[in-house]
Amino acid sequence: MIRTALALLVAVPLSAQEPTRFEEVRRFSAPEAVQGVAVDEQYVYAIANRSIGKYEKGTGSRVGGWEGPSDGPIIHLDSGVVIDGLLYCAHSNYPGVPMLSSIEIFDPETMTHVGSRSLGILEGSATWVDRWNGHWWVALANYAGAGGVPGRGPEWTTLVELDDSWRRVAAFVYPPDVVERFDVMSNSGGTWGTDGKLYITGHDEPAVFVLSLPSAGSVLRLEEELPITAEGQGIAWDRGEPGVMYSIVRSDRNVVESRLR
Fold it and tell me: Using 50, 70 and 90 to split pLDDT, how confident is the model at 10?
């Protein structure tokens, strides 16, 4: 009798659990919410091809920004991340070929461009950058449409691991069921979680794919798919608020704050 009661007590919570998902908390308008987003303790940074808007996290008010000239060397900024007081943005010459990539560095306090790390010609266009486990990680996207190289579609998209001198340490590719969801585009956003898993997005779909490193071989493992009110593009964890992720809705030029439930 006691054993039966205990079994019921255990079974009810398990059966009542809802699937994990990102629940939207709020959103605010940001004209630069085209490619990606980054976040630190006080501010959110909306990223467009050649511009970045700085917004107060609490109010959504624009307090600063950076804009590059139309004929300047910065062509296509993508996802960003704030690390040790600097804003790092993946950058490429998309849709130009051969694909050229760099990491562009900004001072988020003054919103000035303070540095650049050229990656040159690699096996794709840099779309996001993050730091995890003592190394840099950069996604190199390949496309079946504009900006692609004939004979190399999204299945050629590669995640590279780099040391402090930006030298290649390892590389991985994406699982076929995730590549299929990229359609003709590729992996647009990505960020490592405190759980040691990689959270990525495609170009358009309202989903976050949770991946892990393989125990052997070169193909990342798909652990879970989480719904989110975003249209692919860049994502960023709020490192000061566990479980809070920022994303964008490109069609409405909105920044979205969501919480993992």
Answer: very low
Tokens of 59: 């109010």
DSSP-assigned states of every residue in 82-124:
EETTEEEEEEE-TT-SS--EEEEEEETTTTEEEEEEEEES-SS
115 neighbors 125 (Cβ within 8 angstroms): no
Contact 48, 102 (CB under 8 A): no
Is the per-residue pLDDT at 154 higher than 60? yes
Distance CA 152, CA 222 (A): 22
What is the three-class DSSP state of 70? coil
pLDDT tens, residue by residue, 179-189: 999 999 999 99
Taking the C-alpha atoms of residue 63 and residue 73, their distance in angstroms, rounded to an integer, is 25
Residue 174 near residue 192 (C-beta atoms within 8 A): no
The CA distance from 259 to 32, in Å, is 22
Does 20-260 carry CATH code 3.30.70.260?
Answer: no
Where are the chain's structural domains?
20-260
Confidence band (pLDDT; 50, 70, 90) for 145? confident
The one-letter amino acid code at 249 reads: V
pTM: 0.92
Averaged pLDDT for residues 1-7: 39
Torsional class of 251: left (φ above 0), alpha (ψ -120 to 50), beta (otherwise):
alpha
206: preceding bond cis by omega (within 30 degrees): no
